[in-house]
Amino acid sequence: MVRQATISAVWDANRLRIATDAAGVALWSWNVDTDQIALDEQAQRMWRLPPSDDVITFEDLSARIHPKDLDRVRAAFSATRDKPGSYEIDFRILDGKDIR
Fold this sequence. Notes:
It holds the Pfam family PAS_3. It comes from Alsobacter metallidurans. This is PAS fold-3 domain-containing protein. This protein is an alpha+beta fold. Helices cover 49% and strands 12% of the residues.
């Protein structure tokens, strides 16, 4: 039973990775209590972060958010502290001189 659940979880994770890679999107989550952000491999690539087990915080990533988007993104992050739930926001990421 446990083995089947493990196989199923691995299968689901692989299908999710294939789908996000094909769509060119990334997955990440933010723990509002600890301010720790977990990024999938695609998110690490999008943010140009090396694979690492280091703790990533919102402030670490905010330096890479386009200045015209930063206030709106900060407001969205703050809102999650007041009203927990799922949020979706689009913003630009700075990559040297490029914007993604």
